[in-house]
Amino acid sequence: MMSVSTDNLTGYSLTPAKPRLLMEYLEKNGLLEFFFLDDNFSPLSREDFYIAHTKEMVDNFFDRGKTSKILHINWTPEYAESVKYECASLYYAIRYAVQKPEEVCFSPSSAFHHANPTRSALFCAFSGQVIASMKVYYEFGLCGAYIDLDGHYGNSIDNSRDFVPDIDKAISPVCGNINIMARHKAYIEELKANLKILRTEVLENRIHYIVFCHGADSHEWDELASQLSTEEWVECSRLVYMLMQDIENETGKQIPLILTLFGGYRRDDYNSVLSLHSTDLVACLNILCGRTIYYKPEVKPRILKNE
Length: 307
Ligand SMILES: [Zn+2]
Hints:
This protein is α/β, with parallel strands linked by helices. The protein contains 10 helices and 5 strands; from the N terminus they run ααααβαβααβαβαβα. Strand 4, helix 9 and strand 5 form a beta-alpha-beta unit.
């Protein structure tokens, strides 16, 4: 896994360093032993980025270090290189999961869902979801769905519908980009309604794999969003994993499941972000992988200063 060091990062964005920080956190808490690590994969090629973006934008980024102002990340050669690996991480995770559905795959990646075909935005250099799913569609003819429970609407998939041929065959146009914008109880209810539609699409064989993006910025103490208490946030994890279990009981087979990270911004206590993600992973291990791990979330109330 390639991940950027924290040295050059300021303000909100520890996002490029998040994969490494999370792995360190898991190790410190004795949780890393439940994962089989595979960081032996190639970065994406230049052509892969052309799948979802204009050539001009991609070449400007990699050859000239030119990014959109609203990316909010300073371009460095190290960052540009890490982006190739981050997008590849999601692609290879999906690729592995569709071939081995009995194993849940985790891609510790984040920054994919705000870019659009012509520009990067809000910590997201490229549309990693679109690139990964298109490549999986080209290779296996499979269609996926994203349960995007980040605190912000993931626009990448919707904004790519007119730009990327065949995207509707690669990411379900019915419920391929589930985002919930409500709060608290209404959020949970809306999620349940969406999962019901997703369940039907999977059972009727129109969706073949599910990517769960449980962004920590849908938590009420996050700096950039605020929708769910800790209990509610954890309940969302449970609902998704129970759905997977229910589908398995109904069909007698496992549907490929891929987990990713997405947002989470706490300048006062980044451990809270890492702890929420760990709580989600433990819920998956306990509900779907037969583990009985006890892990208590360490999410601290936000300290309001210098905002
Ligand atoms: Zn977000």
